[in-house]
Amino acid sequence: MKNLYLLFTLLLLSTPAVSQYISVDQNYTAQQLVEDVLFSNSCASVSNVTVSGGNFGTGEKSWGYFNRNGSAFELEEGIILSTGKINNAVGPNSSLSDDDAPNWNGDSDLNQALSISNSINATILEFDFVPLGDKISFEYIFSSEEYHDTAPCQYSDGFAFLLREVGTTPYENLALIPGTNIPVKVTTVHPEIFNGCDGENEQYFGSYNTFNHPTNYNGQTVTLKAEADVTPGTTYHIKLVIADEGNYRYDSAIFLKGGSFSSVGTLGNDRTLALNNPVCYDETFSLDATTAGVTTYQWYFNGSILNGENSPILNFSPPYNQLMNGNYSVLLGFGSTCTESMKINLDFTEELIVNESTYTKCDDDNAQNGISYFTNGDLLAIKNQLFNSLPSNYTLQLFDNINDTTPITIPYYNNTPYTHTIYGKITNVNCYAPIPITLIVNIFEDEIPDETLSICSGSSVILQAETGYNYIWSSGETTSSIEVSNAGTYSVEIINTNECSTIKNFTVLTSEIATIVDIIVNDFSSNNTAEIIVSGNGDYEYSLDGINYQDNPIFYNLETGEYTVFVNDKNGCGIASANFSILDYPNFFTPNGDGFNDTWNIKNLEKRGLQESKIFIFDRYGKLLKQISPEGQGWNGTINGHQVPSEDYWFVLELTNGKTIKGHFALKR
Predict the structure, then answer these.
(1) Contact at 8 Å (CB) between 326 and 124?
(2) Nearest CA to 225 among 164, 123, 142, 166?
(3) How far is CA 656 from CA 275, 578, 583, 614, in A?
(4) In Å, how far are 118, 141, 178, 240, 255 from 226, measured between CA atoms?
């Protein structure tokens, strides 16, 4: 059982290695590599094939055949040329390929092509061939251990694809950055290096490699194409060479794509969305496969014959659609036994019909100045409405100005109040002009104040919003007013013709008629007052005549007499009333028998239930002269039948509520 478990474990561990890394084969001859792998067609006219490389004591080689072997490596199969053992090129990327061999020299032609003088460990594959057409091309990837740390800023192995007519001396190097005379090297193709140097031709850099990469190299380029103009029927010599520069450390390799060597030229560079160069929706486009010596042409789309397309030129004209995207190829017939092919990948763009280029929103801040905050949701809505059906692989971004290269980001405010223009751009397709988009920011102009209302117990009140709008009440109604019978807070969204809105709040308070609890009278003074004490849930005002009201519940400077106080609820819930009296004593009396002020007394004490109170009269020396009753006739100014003289007299009023009042009055004859 233990042995079975061990076997099963070993199988699990070993299975990924079969399909995870490339494989190499050192048993191919140089002739087989060129004719059967690199050319792989019946038209090849190849001769004088030679190969040379490291003389390892183990018999291993620095050149040979490679296969993807089910891994994720970009090329299916082809030729590998290395500055080390090709066995060390197989992944994972777990060790340093760093090989050397005795007497392994460099190459003078490579030195001249790269303007160097110190190449060593050169691996060279060279042959003669006769092209059928006026162009040749093949594809390759350059990989290197020198893609590490800051090394790309200053170190690189060198390689070249050297071409010349047989019998001539100068070589042309085909291993160049596309569209330039710059050789492809680690130092010329790399991203920005942290604490090192700026990026160089970054678009041609493939990746830095992790542990489980299919090869044992630290990094590589994308698949590149080498190409050159040639003369049909002329014999050419090509020398494919790679070498270490300076020392043997940190090996590199060239992977030549199997079957990619074409001697009839190309249909041009791929035009795809991924490369940001598709065929534009308004562009008339042609593929020209015209080649000397060709007797037949047949065009294909995704491997299927395009019936009737047998001319050297395949024409395209608008309108286009995405069903046309794919691989186009042409089979060239040279007589009855020889065929060559060209191919190209094409993506076509469709005309984009603008659906809605105006976006309207309301100014949703307190300023109401036509400058508003645009959220991510707003920007998404703008994009979604711009086109009815934008292809999913198109990238639409919004820009504040037509020449901006940095898209709008959040937070974003429109720069121009009320009406502002931004621009939509398809940034991954170079076929479309910027699209102006009008942003309209509407406002709610009118001031809508909140209100506080009261409601009388058992009744209702009308909440009336400003007229001329649309309405949505918190209770669900859509009229300009509603009737409520309960206290609380109510709100209504008021919407203008621009669909902008504001919220008006109504606070409804309960109100009721007042209950007069007490009237506190302060009389027998120079400033007689009455304070009205009430209870109830209302907003009250006070009056002594039922006409003129005051908010203060205290009345001042009241004269002696009887009063009726009225307490009005300002919210219209009713008026309460009560009576009270202001008491005082006469300041003088005139006992002359004319019927006016002939006696002195303190009247109306019975109005407040004080009729049992006692009144004592004294002369100015404090001698008690008389005690009288509030209910009697009062004092007539005599003592024992004798008239007292005209002068001031004093009194003491002892009220039955325990209060004592003292004062004086004048007797005048």
Answers:
(1) no
(2) 142
(3) 112, 23, 15, 8
(4) 25, 11, 8, 11, 13
Judge whether 599 and 633 are in contact, CB under 8 Å. yes
Q: 268 φ, ψ to 5°? A: 105, 180
* Phi/psi of residue 33, nearest 5 degrees: -60, -45
Give the single-character DSSP code of 353. Answer: P
Say how far apart CA 106 and CA 114 lie, in whole Å: 12
What six digits make up the tokens of 187? 């130092």
The 8-class DSSP code of residue 146 comes to T
Contacts of 387 (CB under 8 A, 6+ apart): 352, 353, 354, 355, 396
Q: How far, CA to CA in Å, does 549 sit from each of 543, 570, 605?
A: 4, 10, 28
Q: Is the entire prediction scored with pTM above 0.85?
A: no
Query: Which residue's structure tokens are 């400077």?
Result: 557
592-630 confidence digits (pLDDT tens) = 988 899 999 998 888 888 899 999 999 999 999 999 999
Quick check: 355 and 385 in contact, CB under 8 A? yes
419-473 residue pLDDT tens: 999 999 999 898 999 999 999 999 998 889 999 998 998 889 999 999 999 999 9
Torsion from C-alpha of 242, 246, 247, 249, nearest 10 degrees: -70
The closest alpha carbon to 162, from 220, 219, 206, 122, belongs to 122
Taking a C-beta distance cutoff of 8 angstroms, is the pair 557, 528 a contact? yes
Token readout for 570 is: 């300002």
Pairing of strands 236-245, 158-165: antiparallel
- What is the distance between the alpha carbons of residues 79 and 33, in angstroms, rounded to a whole number? 7
Instruction: Please give, one letter per residue, the 3-state secondary structure of 625-643.
Output: EEEECCCCCCECCEECCEE
